Amino acid sequence: MTEQEKSVLREVDEDVRRSAKHMIRTARFGSLALIDQNDGHPVVSRVGLATDTNGMPIIPVSSLSGRDADLAADTRASLLVGEPGKGDPLAHGRITLQGSVERLAEADHARARRRYLARHPKASIYIDFADFSIWRLNVQTASLNGGFGKAYALAADDLSLECNDWDAWNAMEAGAVEHMNDDHSDANALYGEVLCKAGAGAWRLTGLDPEGLDLALGDQHERYTYASKITKAEELRPRLVELVKEARTLQGTIG
């Protein structure tokens, strides 16, 4: 990176990290750039997205597209996420993630499959076809553009999530999400409508991690980030209860 490039970058703080994580967590799709193994040229594909519990993007790939061969031949990849709104598309935020991909297997594949289907339930008609595999992009660096004049260079530590015991967390998360969706739809509604300040509806949890919770209402995806991180699985239930109380208090104030 040249001195001129460094001069236009802003300082990365906790708000910037939170914004970047939110953009990645709520993205439904992205543009994946790879190196074509046949001619060495860059190739870009639109891919569906979800995230692993540690915040890294997970991507299903069909061998019929030929992209899985590219991924296996050269694990370097870049992923662009961020949807434009009205007006100039360059005025809207986006983030480019650079890193290496790995094909997930066994327990990692099962977790990624579940988390992907939670965000893209219609993918159930093809996700288990023999030609499909699931890959994770392990981010090493990232470039966040929050709009004109808002450029940031991020490192892996800025985007990855930490947990004292990922094995315990991953063993617990699926059951916790299922329990909340089956038995506590009222709590999910409070998370979506009050804490995320999103529209009313049958909100469902799609994932839980040490920094926040992810929700979906149809194709609308939201994320609520906790005021303070939790570090282990046993702290999750009390935090979810606290959030319900907080949301009801806010609801009463608004009402």
Highlighted features:
8 helices
Short description:
With 255 residues, the protein is α+β, with helices and mostly antiparallel strands. The protein has 8 helices and 11 strands.
Structure write-up:
This protein has eight helices and eleven strands. With 255 residues, it is an alpha+beta fold. Strands 1, 2, 3, 4, 5, 6, 7 and 8 form an eight-stranded antiparallel beta sheet that branches. A hairpin with a 5-residue loop joins strand 7 and strand 8 (151-155). Helix 6 (166-183) crosses helix 7 (185-195). The longest helix has 19 residues, at 236-254. The mean pLDDT is 92.
Helix content: 25-40%
Class by SSE composition: alpha+beta
- Terminal residue distance: 52 Å
Put simply, the count of helices is 8
**How confident overall, as mean pLDDT?**
92
Listing every helix as H and every strand as E from the N terminus to the C terminus, the arrangement reads HHEEEEHEEHEEHHHEEEH
Name the overall outline: globular
List the uncertain runs.
Answer: none
Largest sheet: 8 strands, antiparallel
Proportion of beta-strand residues: 25-35%
Q: Write down the Rg.
A: 19 Å
Beta strands, count:
11
List the helices and strands and how they pair.
Layout: H1 3-7, H2 14-26, E1 29-35, E2 42-48, E3 50-51, E4 57-62, H3 67-73, E5 76-81, E6 94-103, H4 106-119, E7 132-145, E8 151-155, H5 156-159, H6 166-183, H7 185-195, E9 204-209, E10 212-217, E11 220-225, H8 236-254
